[in-house]
Design a protein that fits this description.
Helix content is 56%, strand content 3%. A hairpin with a 2-residue loop joins strand 1 and strand 2.
Length: 158
């Protein structure tokens, strides 16, 4: 047997010989409702804005999907109908710009939201902006214990 006294810190207590006493049993109780309303990663920190981030992210994901399908689809259809695909991709880019602006103002602030919205209008760079803003939204949702799938977050969890 060891001559050292039993270390009760593992059980939440303390020994008289321990100078660095940890008071595990004197912690304040944490309210479950207060912990569940604290939102991480957003400027406002409100649950309503977290829901909006999830909704805007779904919009961005749909825009990315339409863009990819449009680019691949233009090679599968006759030349006479490619103008239709071009118009769809153009409209998709405009809608994507709106979602980038809305989402980035919630996440980054107004100035960066406007800058990213303008960059989203530039061909090819706009797709990169969509992907970056989508990645940030995914990270924020995951930080707040929201499951994010292939087409965005499950809105019923928020």
């Amino acid at each position: 047997m060891s001559s050292r006294p039993l270390d009760r810190n593992l059980l939440g207590g303390h020994t008289a010989t321990d100078n660095t006493t940890r008071h595990h049993d004197e912690r304040k109780p944490v309210s479950i409702t207060a912990a569940s309303t604290e939102i991480v990663g957003l400027k406002s920190g409100s649950r309503d804005n977290l829901r909006r981030v999830a909704q805007y992210q779904k919009g961005i994901l749909v825009c990315i999907l339409i863009y990819v399908i449009g680019v691949i689809g233009q090679f599968a259809i006759p030349v006479e109908f490619r103008i239709i695909i071009a118009i769809v991709i153009l409209l998709d880019g405009l809608v994507g710009t709106v979602f980038v602006f809305l989402l980035s103002t919630k996440v980054y602030g107004i100035v960066i939201g406007v800058l990213l919205g303008i960059l989203a209008l530039v061909p090819c760079i706009g797709l990169l902006v969509l992907l970056v803003v989508n990645g940030k939204a995914t990270a924020i949702l995951k930080q707040n214990q929201i499951k994010v799938g292939l087409m965005g977050a499950d809105l019923s969890q928020i």
